[in-house]
Amino acid sequence: MTCRRAGDATTGNDGSDAMTNEVWVLGATGRTGRAVAARLAATDVSPVLVGRDATRLTEASKSAGSGARTIVAASVASMIAEVRRQRPAVVINTIGPFADTAVPIAQACLPGSHYVDLANDVIAASALLGLHEEAVAAGRILVTGAGFGVLATESVVARDPETRRALADFELRSILQERR
Ligand SMILES: NC(=O)c1ccc[n+]([C@@H]2O[C@H](COP(=O)([O-])OP(=O)(O)OC[C@H]3O[C@@H](n4cnc5c(N)ncnc54)[C@H](OP(=O)(O)O)[C@@H]3O)[C@@H](O)[C@H]2O)c1
User: Which residue has its alpha carbon closest to ligand 1 atom 39?
Assistant: First the structure.
């Protein structure tokens, strides 16, 4: 997925302009949320950290090393309201269980924002895929099952011979490095 940087415009198929070009991390006080925020902050994409506790969000912002903007929202419903109101360019959802959070958050993203989650269960992934047509109509991308250890994602990766070769290379290099 391409993340646009400050200054870029984002426009959906319906002609709607995203109100911001921000990348939001929902659940930014959690283990994965913090890691995602730190990885983004290490690039030229400045994340916006969204969570339900102001103090822990500030800590997460500091540990991401970015002094990132934070948004306090007491519940998933409040986060959804903020997504609808502020319309970030990309929403990364790290709040499980994804069977509960994926569809409502992804629906709030359309038509203005792209969406990514880490769902690792078939119910959540299937439900998200049910929004395919709506996302296509809006010109937005919905990604489910990001990360590692997700059977659906790894099955797709494993079917591609070029990716399989690259992974085998990577594994071999990791093993050799460990033995040094
Ligand atoms: N696909 C992958 O590779 C992968 C990898 C790791 C994890 N996961 C999945 O990702 C999810 C998160 O894992 P994690 O280890 O990061 O969990 P975690 O450390 O417990 O973090 C969960 C985050 O979600 C927030 N949250 C939980 N319930 C909420 C609610 N009702 N309303 C608002 N915020 C809520 C928490 O906020 P507070 O801090 O306020 O509690 C926290 O920020 C899990 O479902 C896990 O299975 C997937």
Answer: 29
